[in-house]
Amino acid sequence: MNSQHRKTLLALFAQPVPANLEWRRIEALFLALGAEMVEGAGSRVAFVLHDRRADFHRPHPGKEAKRYQVRAAREFLEAAGVTL
Which GO terms describe its molecular function (predicted)? Predict the structure, then answer.
């Protein structure tokens, strides 16, 4: 995990939930942690990390993740055993 991934991890666990976090940074963090990415139809994407699966829709037309997506990403990491 590089410094950019670490910054993204810190942002995911920040309070209040950030509204300006780019989705591509969250995806890059998942992949850096060893998650497997499964592309779905359209904007759907799933990640599997430590036998935990989470399904997401990439934000569009913007590139920033919505607050509910950031919360879901945090819950996915917590369920997979990833913490600060």
Answer: mRNA binding
**CA–CA separation, 37 and 55 (whole Å):** 10
Domains held by the chain: number:
1
Location of structure tokens 């569009």: 60
Domain that holds residue 49: 3-79
Q: Is residue 73 in a domain?
A: yes
Entry pTM: 0.93
User: Contact, 28 vs 45, CB < 8 A?
Assistant: no
Token digits of residue 44: 């759907």
DSSP string computed for 14-73: -SSPPS--BHHHHHHHHHHTTPEEEE-STTEEEEEETTEEEEEE---SSSBPPHHHHHHH
